[in-house]
């Protein structure tokens, strides 16, 4: 796969990595963690495949680097080529992720845990919060990241902020098909027969931005947990690239939009 140098997106790594940046009235050290393994199955090498003229991971790195509240942007990968391209785009790759943490079934928490442990042991670096950004969801904005950081920094009682949007269809009306072919309610609630306007507002976390305090990650042994606040995203499609059809759809939207 070919790659070209994009001078506009070169970023010098901050020499004072332990300098905190002030957001609102709360001082936090914040890192972005971008997971990008090399062994993607649905779309081969998708993290560095060219999407609308740029490596897919470019969009997520560029977005993180544009947020002044983020002290460090770190790509965790098991792949040397992805690491090289990520560095050229301005991210840090302080380690190569172990192969056992880059399997199809590897959940998010061990990946984040490995990164935090490496920074603690090897650099004596201890961030206060982690912004977790999936490169397969490139259609986010730096304003959404900054908005999530602002919500977390303004309320010390929060553990996490997640981007969320209304569900397209009420889960109260969904059914489960039994073995005999009959339908039963998916959820047994008083809302099963309610009109749409009488239903509570139901949100889904779309995965575009997740930010958590490291204290919460340690406590719950999860990337998200505890008291979670939503950053409301009402418009725009949800794009998570897992198949070639997802890729084609995302590329169509990218070429159509001037925002990314």
Automatic annotation (TrEMBL):
<dbReference type="InterPro" id="IPR050793">
    <property type="entry name" value="CMP-NeuNAc_synthase"/>
</dbReference>
<protein>
    <recommendedName>
        <fullName>Acylneuraminate cytidylyltransferase family protein</fullName>
    </recommendedName>
</protein>
<dbReference type="InterPro" id="IPR029044">
    <property type="entry name" value="Nucleotide-diphossugar_trans"/>
</dbReference>
<dbReference type="Pfam" id="PF02348">
    <property type="entry name" value="CTP_transf_3"/>
</dbReference>
<dbReference type="InterPro" id="IPR003329">
    <property type="entry name" value="Cytidylyl_trans"/>
</dbReference>
<dbReference type="GO" id="GO:0008781">
    <property type="term" value="F:N-acylneuraminate cytidylyltransferase activity"/>
</dbReference>
